[in-house]
Structure formats: structure tokens, C-alpha cells
Amino acid sequence: MHIVVCMKQVPRDNSVKINADLSINADGIEQIMNLFDEYAVEEALQWNEKLGGKVTVLSIGPEDWKEQIRRALAMGATDSLLLSDPAFTNLDTLGAARVAAAAIKKLGDVDLVLGGRNSTDDETGAFAPALARLLGWTQLTYVGKIVSLESGKIVAERHLEEVVETVEASLPAVVTVVKGINEPRYPSLLRIRKVAKVEIPTWSAADLGLSAADLTPALKLVNRVPPPPRPKGEIIEGKDAAEKVKKLVDKLIEAQVI
Amino acid sequence: MNFDLSPEHQRIRAEVRRFAEQEIAPRARHVDETGEFPAETFRKMAELGLMGLPFPEEYGGAGADSISTAIAIEEIARACGSTALTYAAHLGLGCAPIAMFGTEEQKRRFLRPAAEGRFLGAFALTEPHAGSDAGATRTTARLENGEWVINGSKMWITNASIAGYLIVTAVTDPGERHSISSIIVPAGTPGMSFGKPEAKMGLRGSITNAVTFENVRVPEENLLGRRGRGLQQFLAVLDGGRIGIGAMAIGLAQAAFEIASAYARERTAFGKLIGAFESVSNMIADMAVGLEAARLLVYQAAWLKDQGRQYSREAAIAKLYASEVGEKICRDAIQVLGGYGYSSEYPLERIYRDQRLLTIGEGTSEILRVVIGRQILGEFVGR
Ligand SMILES: Cc1cc2nc3c(=O)[nH]c(=O)nc-3n(C[C@H](O)[C@H](O)[C@H](O)COP(=O)(O)OP(=O)(O)OC[C@H]3O[C@@H](n4cnc5c(N)ncnc54)[C@H](O)[C@@H]3O)c2cc1C
Ligand SMILES: Cc1cc2nc3c(=O)[nH]c(=O)nc-3n(C[C@H](O)[C@H](O)[C@H](O)COP(=O)(O)OP(=O)(O)OC[C@H]3O[C@@H](n4cnc5c(N)ncnc54)[C@H](O)[C@@H]3O)c2cc1C
């Protein structure tokens, strides 16, 4: 079984600044593997341990994203692929999905693509569905458990807000996972040392046969501002706890919270 | 000259920090309050490959260098002093002597499982009447029908009652001065018994015991290194251990520094952030200076060790400075927090108590000054 995990490097927290040209400035903020992708990597590794085959971590990003690819390799991924090209700098979600789809087609033997339910920076949650569409594969989103995986078939639980759905689909498929599907392992320090020198294959737009038109964003960023500050809280006064609680409950009812 | 940590050092720091923040720090208070050994934490540390970090892969280690090891100890200490001492003693005192002086068979039997984290190692040098003056060791080991028979007692031994083996120093040729040897005693050997864990000011989750040996018999081949060379051996072992204690001092001080600087940006008095008062910002500045200087000294000693060069003096300097400045940093951090610094609601008083050992263990400050003074002035110092 060949599993590809789409993995993104993101700033550890969202206290980023916005540059004059509206791009994001994450200088000085530690870069980490997107939280949900870490679950995807772990899930791929666990199935790989059972079924054998390959786990390829795939990222679309600049050279320095190799850092998190190496982390995934240290966790146990067998293969890696960086899709990197100056032309990829301003991709929108659909463009990124086109790049990934081209790479997955080029790999040829992929049975399953795993990814996180969304990235913690752009948060569109649309990458994997777009990828599935472009590949013409089935998509299973919000997966909280893969019940079984065998050649040609997957059974998985989709963990939605109100219900858990068990679904069955034929492979190849694209699956996005939610937090809690597993407990991601820490990469071993020995493997961290060993993968330091691993050559990470890098494919450009030309390697993927992508044209400028494929990469032109459909979405134009018009403005980017920080959200308005949270409104101030209110301290409820009262002569004792009972009175304060009563006032609080009245306010909550008034605000239709309860 | 290059002061940058290598990408490998940075990766190890990032990974150990992440692990320590997620798995160790949340338990630090519990460990201090109850004195419980965090066994589950050590199981996970083994999975990460921490328990044998500096030892060769063939003996279950991760083959990392001394700088990486110092960084790992530093990051663990930033989260929990007790866990850091248990760890540093395991690596630097329990495992290192076997890696340095052990036979192939000893490495296979003791180092490998210890490095894999299947058990901890311990080193029993100090005695009730022989601390700094380790040459005054009274524990004896006599050879009888191919077995060492050990008698005596040890004091303040980190990890003793939970270790898989103890490396015990003992007089093997009475009459000759300094005729001390090291012998490996596996856990469970009849005649070896442990006092209950010592109640301590800090590092309360690190187990420390007195150990008694009554006709403890181990095979002759459990001699570690050459007979009669115990004194020279443990001086070499302590050189490495001092880098570990220096690293621990930096980690604890770093935690205190972070808490104090965050507080100075939040707390107001007299209508200003307290960080705006020069006496507070001066304390913060001095902390940063001490921390940077200590870190450079510790990494320098580790670097020299990695280069295979002499590092005994630099390790003594690093340990002395880091432990003393670390104590001052913790003291000042409490000062910055005022009454809250003194309260057990905040971690600072625990960090302060934990830090306090570091000017005592593995060479007191006074002894280190003797060592450094002798290197500069000559052997007459302290005589
Ligand atoms: C928590 C903890 C863990 C420990 N873990 C271990 C362990 O795993 N293995 C182990 O073998 N030991 C261990 N020790 C023992 C530790 O190494 C000793 O406590 C230390 O070496 C000091 O010895 P001492 O306590 O006997 O003090 P002493 O040597 O009696 O010193 C008392 C005072 O006299 C001073 N002094 C002594 N000689 C001189 C001199 N020549 N010049 C100037 N001043 C001098 C000292 O600096 C000190 O201030 C541990 C101790 C503690 C508290
Ligand atoms: C065990 C204990 C018992 C106590 N008992 C009593 C009691 O019985 N009654 C009582 O009323 N209080 C009591 N206190 C409170 C104690 O008096 C205060 O903790 C103390 O006054 C410091 O105030 P703070 O903790 O709010 O620190 P802060 O005033 O917040 O000070 C924080 C830091 O800022 C510095 N700082 C503040 N202002 C300035 C400035 N203008 N210039 C330079 N530096 C500044 C301080 O020196 C300190 O380093 C007690 C506290 C403790 C811990």
C-alpha cells in the first residue's frame, strides 16, 4: 500500500504580522508541522506498520519546509517529496491542489492520500476536497477512525459534530483526519540524526508539466487585517455569591445563551 | 569561530523542548509535592531515545554529541528539576563510566539496556564520611574465590533503589593510598539494601538513598576498568557529569527567567508596569547576562569534550559559574514576583529549591575553586 500524506509547515502560533503587501510575516515564530497533519502522518505510519508498502510525505512549499518533512521522516515515513518552485509562491487552495494532484498522478501507484482536516494558518479546509475532485477519487472528510484498510477498500468513521458516520469507499481515496484519531508519536532522536542527510526529492512546476495558467490564483486577496479586539468582559457585582449567580443567570438568559 | 548550534542541535532542542513541555512540565508540581518517581515519563523518554542519547547506537544509544546531551538536559530541567537530575545522573554517572571503561561484555549487559531505558543506572561514590574527600572511601571489596566481597555504606546515591545496577567505588588494596576500584553491582544482589528515599529541600521527585553492603558478592569480572584506578576514573566521570549539572542549572534558570520577564510585562504597581522600574529591569538584564554567559561556558566545555580535547578545567568553570549564577537568577526571579514568587502557587519557589543542590553535587563550589585554582597556581593550592 502506498500512502501519501500531504503535510504543511505552519507558524506555531497565529501572532503573525501583516506586511505592507498583505503577505504574512511570521518572522521569529517557530515553524511546526500543521497539527492535523501530524495525526495524518501517525495514521499513515500505523497502517504502514500493518500493511507494509510506502508512506510518502508530500509538501508544497519553499526549501525550508524540508525541516518538517525531515521530522515526518524521523517519525517513520519511508519517502518524501517537496514540490517547490518560485511559481508556487502565491498559490491559492485550488492551485495547491492542482500541484499536488499532478505530483500524485506522476507518482502513479498511490492508493490513499491522507491529510489534516485543515491547516491552522489558512484554515480553508478545501485543499483535500479539491485534490480529490481533481484526481477523480472519493473523498472522506473528518475521519476520526479508519476501521479497515485493504487493497481496494477503506471503511472509516466520519466524526461530525452531532453524529458518527461509518462509510465505505473503494480506493484510491483522499481522507482528511481530525484530532484524536490517534496519538502522534515523538520522532526518535536517533532517527532525527539519521534522516538529517536524507536527500529529499524536489519537483518543480516544469517537472509536473504545470503551466502558468494552472497556477494563476482564482482568488484575489483584497485586504487582510487582524480581527477586531474582543469586546471587554463584564464583572458582575453583588452583595454575595447567590446574588451574583442570579444576576449572571439572568444575563445569560437575556443573551439567549441558556 | 562559530557560535551557531548546528541544525542537528537545533532539531534536538526543538524536539526535547516539545516533549518536555507536553509530557514533563505538567507533572513537575505533582512530582515535587509527592516525591513520586515519574515512571511513565521515563518510559516515554526511552521511546524518544533520550535514555541513551550520547552512547553509540550499537549499545542502544542515539550517538549524539555532548552539546546535544547538554541541550537535552537543559530542556528537561526547564520543565522539571527532579526529572532532570534523575536523567543527568543516569547518563553521566550511571551509564558513562561503563561506556568509558567497560568491557564489551559489560557494555552489552549493563550499558545497552540502560541506554534503551529498560532500567536506570546509578553511581555510588559518596559515603557518610567521605563526600568531597572521596579518597577517604571506607567501603571495601576483597577478592575471594573469584568473587568480590563488598562491605560498607554509601550515602546520597541518586536512583540507587530504582536502578538496574550500581557502580560502587571501594578500597580493593587496603594500606595503599587511593587504591580504589569501581565494581558493578546488579540490582537484587543479596546483601545490598537501601535506606528509604531521603527527604530533601528540592529535587524531591529524584530518588536519593543510602546504601548498605553486607558481604555483597559479585563475580570478579564485574570490576569496571583497572583495579586500583577508581580515583582517576571517577575524576574523569565527574568532568562529564559537571557539564550535565551546568546544563541543569541553565535549564532551571531559563525557566525562572522566563517567568520573571513575563511577569515584569504584566504586573503594575504605582500605575506602571513593574518592568518600567529600573531596579526590576536591572534584575531581568542581569539574569539574561548570567544565563548567556553560563550557557556559553557549558557549551564550550561540551564542545571541547566532543573535540576529544582536555576539558576538565572548562567543565569545572562551567559548572561552578552556571550553578552559582543559576541560584542568583532564581533568587532574583522570586524577587521580581514579590509575594507571589514566595508562594507555592507559582513554580518559582520549587525551581529555587531544585537549583540549590547544584552548587553541592558533583563537586561543591569550594572544591571546584580548589580545582581551578590549582590549574592556575599549581598543586600547592588547598594542601
Ligand atoms: C540530591 C543529591 C544527590 C546526590 N547524588 C549522588 C550520587 O548519585 N552519587 C554520589 O556518589 N554522590 C551523590 N551525592 C553526594 C554529593 O556528591 C556530595 O554531597 C558532595 O560531593 C559533597 O559531599 P558532602 O555532602 O559529604 O560534603 P562535605 O564534603 O562534607 O563538604 C562540607 C563542606 O565543606 C566544604 N569542603 C570540603 N572539603 C573542602 C576543601 N578541601 N576545601 C574547601 N572546602 C571544602 C564543602 O565545599 C562543603 O561546603 C548527592 C548529593 C545530593 C544532595
Ligand atoms: C509570607 C507572606 C506574608 C505576608 N504577610 C502580610 C501581612 O501580614 N499583611 C500584609 O498586608 N501583607 C502581607 N504580605 C504581602 C507583602 O507585604 C507583599 O508581598 C510585598 O509588599 C510585595 O508586594 P507584592 O507581592 O504585591 O509585589 P509587587 O509590589 O508587585 O512587586 C513586584 C516587584 O516589583 C518591584 N517594585 C514594585 N514597585 C516598585 C517601584 N516603585 N520601584 C522599584 N521596584 C518596584 C518590587 O520590589 C518587586 O520586585 C505578605 C507576603 C508574604 C509572601
How is this structure best described in words?
The complex is a heterodimer of chains A (258) and B (383). With 258 residues, chain A is an alpha/beta fold. Chain A has one domain (2-215): HUPs (Rossmann fold), CATH 3.40.50.620. Chain A is built from seven helices and 13 strands. Chain A has a nine-stranded mixed sheet with strand order 11-10-9-12-8-1-6-7-13, with helices on both faces. The longest helix of chain A has 17 residues, at 35-51. Chain A is globular, with a radius of gyration of 22 Å. The relative contact order of chain A is 0.17. The model of chain A has no long low-confidence stretch (mean pLDDT 91). Chain B is built from eleven helices and ten strands. Chain B has helices at residues 7-34, 39-48, 66-79, 81-101, 104-115, 230-264, 278-306, 312-337, 339-342, 348-355, 365-377, and strands at residues 120-124, 140-144, 147-158, 163-171, 180-186, 192-194, 208-219, 223-224, 268-269, 272-273. In chain B, helix 3 (66-79) packs antiparallel against helix 4. Chain B has three domains: 7-120, Orthogonal Bundle (Butyryl-Coa Dehydrogenase, subunit A, domain 1); 123-227, Beta Barrel (Butyryl-CoA Dehydrogenase, subunit A, domain 2), CATH 2.40.110.10; 231-377, Butyryl-CoA Dehydrogenase, subunit A, domain 3 (Up-down Bundle), CATH 1.20.140. Chain B starts with 6 loop residues before the first helix and ends in a 6-residue tail after the last helix. In chain B, 52% of the residues lie in helices and 15% in strands. Chain B is of the alpha+beta class. Chain B has a four-stranded mixed sheet with strand order 1-4-5-8, covered by helices on one side. In chain B, strands 2-3-7-6 form a four-stranded antiparallel sheet, with helices on one face. In chain B, strands 9-10 form a two-stranded antiparallel ribbon. Classes of the chains: A alpha/beta (258), B alpha+beta (383). The structure holds flavin-adenine dinucleotide (FAD) (2 copies).
